[in-house]
Structure formats: structure tokens, C-alpha cells
């Protein structure tokens, strides 16, 4: 018989404007505004879309600016005015490569000269993620070459889903890309070692991308490393694309460890939690990681306590129990081995039940400098559940994976596609803004 435990629900709250807490991102933003506003009073937007959607785009831009029944408007929510630059409408025969449009090319040439560049909202046709040469990748890569960020919306998303819901999610991603912070964690991730005042979180992963659906050959490999503070502040993003090479992925992770220590300005003790997904670390990789940490400790004259936590999205294990309201509460966890835990990041949350039946994540402690008996496992569980609340791609209440893992696939596909179709070196991608949302 397994005994389940619960995280304190207060750990799942988020901080909005004025440090005000709220469980629900949508209402936290509406009631209190974003945690951190933009550094400038006006956000410039340029809309790019197929010409047959002109009427829908007029509605879209009106709601984005003025609001509607479920979205109060960009200025009301994010406390910044938006300024629409001239739209660019594209003919159907130009959709496959939007850069053939002369007006669009001229707009990019003009916008790249501004010190504060506009963000493009681009409506693109549906595309297969496995295919690199999509309008999405072609245009996004070209814009990024000029340090212009963009928000892509698929035509089917815009035409089949509730318009205000789409707009609220788009607005949140726009605001984050522009340099604002919609929200942060309400409470800091606590020390798992008991010795450190500061915790930093690193997400790392590598993804193999097939040539075509159904093919077993893989020729594009992408990885990512993201760094978060213990209060949920995005500190650093690094993405790379290479032939599948564990050493390359490991070297990126080791470099980010050094960056983590540098960014935190810590000179005595620090806790480092590494979330990763994908293949398990082998003995050589573990050995190299430990060597890097040991060298860092010696060179900086400090102590680094670390845990490498593997996050498995589709575990073979399930829990069968009778929760009071039909769903396990968010933050439910069960220890099923010395180093393994089933954890629910989706479930019952103060009278809000998710659609469908929640499935847990499997968390496995793969490596640590501490004996397992001296690790505060609730701190590790909390790091996963709380970072699942930090997804700025929308204002949804529930997100199954922590952003350290969820962004892995997104960054991997995007970086591989941008390199292939736009000849954009992943090392040149922004490292301080969530361009990938």
C-alpha cells in the first residue's frame, strides 16, 4: 500500500503586479496586471496575414487593442499601449514563401533599423513539424536574423478556436517576448540540501527529429538548455543543433552550470536542480558532469549541492485511488522506490477540475552528491509542480510539464527548422528573451 502526500496548495500560487498572489493566470493578470512591466510605454505590432482573412484580422486587432467579453484588451491587462504599424497582406500563391512579398521585405528592412523593434504577428498555413521548409520557419528565421521577434498563429487556430481565447494567449506570449514577465512563482523553491540559501534550476534535453513521418532515419538533432532562478525568473536560454552527439549535449550542460554559478553571484553554497528529459545519462556522462562540478567548486571555493532529476512524461505506472472529487489534487505525489516518485502536476485545484483523466509524471533522482536519505524530496517535487505553472505560452490554469522540460521539444523543433530553412545558426538565437513562445 502506497501512501500519497500533498504539497501545500499555496506553493502553486503565482505572483502578479504588486506581488499579489493568484492561482489562476487569467484572473491574476486581469486583477493585478503583470509581475514586471515593459521598460517602454508602447509596444509596436505589425500584422502579416493571407489577404482572404482581412475581415477576421480587423476583428482580431480590435479585440487585441480594445478588448472583448473575456479579454479586457492589451493595455488594460498588460499596462502598455500597443501601436499597430501598417499591415502586410499576402496573396495565396506567396504563402509558401512569404519573403517573395515585396511589401513584407521592405517592412523588414525598415523595422530592423529601429532601436526598439516591433513584434510581428504572422498568420501562417498549417504545417508539419517534421518538415523544415515551412512558411513558419522561413519567415521566423529571417526576422530573427534582424533581431525581430514574431508570434506565429496557424490559420486553423485562428478560424476554429474561440477568438478571444486565442487573443489572450497570443497577448501573453507577445508581452513575454517584448521583455515583460507575466508572472513569477509566489514562493521560492526551497533548498533540498538544507545548507544553501539559493537554488537554481537547469533544464536540459536533446531531441531526434525524423526526416519524414514513419521514417526511422533521423538527420536533425537539437538540444536546449534553460536556466531559471528559484523564484521562476528566466535567466538564460541556449539552443544547439548538431548530429546526434551525447558529448555535445553534455558540453552545453556543463557550460550552463558555469553560467548558473556566475549569474547567481554565489560564493559559498548553492543548490542546483537539473531537470532533463529523453535518454538516461550513461556512466561516462555522469562522470563528466561530476568532474565539472568538482572543478567549479575548487576554482570558486564554494560548495555545489546538485540533483539530476529525470522527468518522464509517459510512465508505465498509474495510481488507482479514490480521491474525494474524482481527481487527484495538483501536487499529489507517491514514492514508489528509493529514488522514484509519481507526481501529479494536473488535477483538482480549488474547485477547478481538468478535462479528461490526469496522468502523472515519473520523477527519477539519477545523480546527486548527497545520500538519498538527506535530500528533501519535497523540494524536488515542488520544483517540478511549481515550474509547470510558469508556461507563458498562454494563460491556461493547467500545464502538465515544468517549463524546463516542456520547452525542450519546442526549442528542438524550432531550432532545427530555423537552421535548415533559414540558415540561422542556433548559437545566434536570443539568450535572454523567450523568442520561442
Write the topology of this structure:
Blueprint: E1 4-6, E2 14-15, E3 21-22, H1 25-32, E4 42-50, H2 54-66, H3 74-78, E5 81-84, E6 88-90, H4 102-111, E7 119-124, H5 135-145, E8 150-154, H6 155-160, H7 163-177, E9 184-185, E10 199-210, E11 218-229, E12 234-242, H8 246-264, E13 269-277, H9 283-300, E14 303-312, E15 332-335, E16 340-343, E17 361-368, H10 377-387, H11 403-422
Parallel strand pairs: 4-5, 4-6, 4-7, 7-8, 10-13, 13-14
Antiparallel strand pairs: 1-15, 2-3, 2-9, 10-11, 11-12, 14-17, 15-16, 16-17
Strand order of the largest sheet: 1-15-16-17-14-13-10-11-12
CATH level 4 superfamily of the largest domain: Ribonuclease H-like superfamily/Ribonuclease H
Strand content: 15-25%
Query: Given the structure, what is the number of helices?
Result: 11
Question: Radius of gyration, rounded?
Answer: 22 Å
* Low-pLDDT ranges: none
Tell the overall outline: globular
End-to-end separation in angstroms reads 42 Å
Measured as a percent range, the helix fraction is 25-40%
Amino acid at each position: 500500500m502506497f501512501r500519497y502526500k500533498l504539497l501545500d496548495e499555496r506553493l502553486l500560487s503565482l505572483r502578479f503586479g504588486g506581488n499579489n498572489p493568484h492561482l489562476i493566470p487569467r484572473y491574476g493578470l486581469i486583477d493585478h496586471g503583470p509581475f514586471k512591466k515593459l521598460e517602454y510605454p508602447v509596444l509596436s505590432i505589425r500584422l502579416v496575414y493571407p489577404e482572404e482573412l482581412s475581415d477576421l484580422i480587423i476583428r482580431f486587432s480590435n479585440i487585441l487593442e480594445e478588448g472583448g467579453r473575456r479579454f479586457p484588451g492589451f493595455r488594460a491587462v498588460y499596462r502598455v499601449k500597443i501601436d499597430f504599424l501598417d499591415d502586410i497582406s499576402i496573396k495565396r500563391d506567396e504563402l509558401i514563401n512569404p519573403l517573395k512579398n515585396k511589401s513584407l521585405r521592405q517592412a523588414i528592412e525598415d523595422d530592423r533599423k529601429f532601436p526598439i523593434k516591433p513584434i510581428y504577428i504572422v498568420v501562417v498555413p498549417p504545417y508539419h513539424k517534421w518538415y523544415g521548409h515551412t512558411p513558419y520557419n522561413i519567415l521566423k528565421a529571417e526576422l530573427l536574423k534582424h533581431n525581430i521577434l514574431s508570434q506565429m498563429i496557424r490559420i486553423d487556430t485562428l478560424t476554429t478556436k474561440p477568438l478571444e481565447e486565442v487573443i489572450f494567449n497570443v497577448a501573453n506570449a507577445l508581452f513575454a517576448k517584448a521583455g515583460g514577465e507575466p508572472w513569477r512563482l509566489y514562493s521560492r523553491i526551497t533548498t533540498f540540501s538544507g545548507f544553501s540559501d539559493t537554488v537554481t534550476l537547469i533544464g536540459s534535453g536533446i531531441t531526434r527529429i525524423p526526416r519524414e513521418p514513419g521514417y526511422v532515419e533521423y538527420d536533425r538533432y537539437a538540444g536546449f538548455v534553460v536556466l531559471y532562478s528559484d523564484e521562476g525568473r528566466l535567466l538564460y536560454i541556449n539552443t544547439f543543433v548538431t548530429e546526434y552527439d551525447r558529448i555535445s549535449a553534455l558540453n552545453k550542460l556543463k557550460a550552463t552550470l558555469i553560467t548558473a554559478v556566475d549569474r547567481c553571484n554565489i560564493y559559498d553554497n548553492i543548490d542546483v536542480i537539473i531537470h532533463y528529459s529523453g535518454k538516461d545519462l550513461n556512466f561516462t556522462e555522469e562522470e563528466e558532469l561530476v568532474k565539472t562540478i568538482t572543478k567549479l567548486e575548487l576554482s570558486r571555493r564554494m560548495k555545489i549541492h546538485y540533483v539530476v532529476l529525470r522527468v518522464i512524461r509517459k510512465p508505465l505506472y498509474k495510481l488507482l485511488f479514490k480521491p474525494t472529487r474524482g481527481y487527484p489534487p495538483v501536487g499529489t505525489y507517491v514514492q514508489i522506490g528509493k529514488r522514484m516518485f509519481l507526481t501529479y502536476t494536473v488535477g483538482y485545484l480549488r474547485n477547478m477540475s481538468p478535462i479528461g483523466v490526469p496522468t502523472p509524471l515519473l520523477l527519477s533522482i539519477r545523480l546527486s552528491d548527497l545520500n538519498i536519505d538527506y535530500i528533501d524530496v519535497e523540494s524536488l517535487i515542488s520544483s517540478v509542480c511549481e515550474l509547470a505553472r510558469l508556461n507563458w505560452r498562454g494563460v491556461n490554469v493547467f500545464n502538465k510539464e515544468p517549463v524546463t522540460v516542456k520547452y525542450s521539444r519546442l526549442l528542438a523543433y524550432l531550432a532545427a527548422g530555423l537552421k535548415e530553412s533559414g540558415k540561422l545558426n542556433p548559437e545566434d538565437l536570443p539568450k535572454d528573451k523567450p523568442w520561442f513562445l
